[in-house]
């Protein structure tokens, strides 16, 4: 295995000597010192670092944009434009996932596609306009998943925008869903009681 002096190691990596020393001091790259206190680098350690850096560079930024209904499509387009411009200004390599679906819909194809990419290790950061674009409720659960996967979530707007109409629609969907479950269960019990009574049980 080749052993490099600091100067040769910096050339091998394509970084400055000062940068290499900093990486070694922070234990990002492993090194050792000779009896004469001169720092040396093993080639395999340098190769590991380059592999990690390459993997990081290959990862994507995923822009996620969402609106609840088709009549909000113009808003979705503006949302996408703002996110694209932000990513371009930052120099991010990105892909865009957008969808028209309620923020309380757990079966959204777009959010499932995003999570699949994250679990496959292909994502470095997720870029959104507001927290509720990812989820109307339970954003913290998604945020915890991203943190465990070492994925950064960048929210480009610090102040939440008011989507009163969209929020009202989501609340109505929740009420409709639970009402259906409640009355469905009630109807089932009523039918069961009728069967019991008709059979004299």
Summarize it.
This protein is α/β, with parallel strands linked by helices and 201 residues long. The chain has helices at residues 6-13, 17-25, 43-58, 73-90, 109-119, 131-134, 139-148, 164-198, and strands spanning 3-5, 32-33, 39-42, 60-67, 94-100, 123-128, 152-155. The radius of gyration is 27 Å and the shape is elongated.
Written description of the protein model:
This is Putative resolvase domain containing protein. InterPro entries: DNA-bd_dom_put_sf, HTH_17, Recombinase/Transposase-rel, Resolv_N, Resolvase-like_N_sf, SinI_DNA-bd, Transpos_IS607. Residues 60-201 form the Resolvase/invertase-type recombinase catalytic domain. A hairpin with a 5-residue loop joins strand 2 (32-33) and strand 3. This protein is elongated. The relative contact order is 0.10. The chain is 55% helix and 17% strand. The mean pLDDT is 83. It has helices spanning 6-13, 17-25, 43-58, 73-90, 109-119, 131-134, 139-148, 164-198, and strands at residues 3-5, 32-33, 39-42, 60-67, 94-100, 123-128, 152-155. The chain is of the alpha/beta class and 201 residues long. It is built from eight helices and seven strands; from the N terminus they run βααββαβαβαβααβα. It has a four-stranded parallel sheet with strand order 5-4-6-7, with helices on both faces. Strands 1-3-2 form a three-stranded antiparallel sheet. It has two domains: 3-56, Multidrug-efflux Transporter Regulator, Chain: A, Domain 2, CATH 1.10.1660.10; 59-155, 3-Layer(aba) Sandwich (Rossmann fold), CATH 3.40.50.1390.
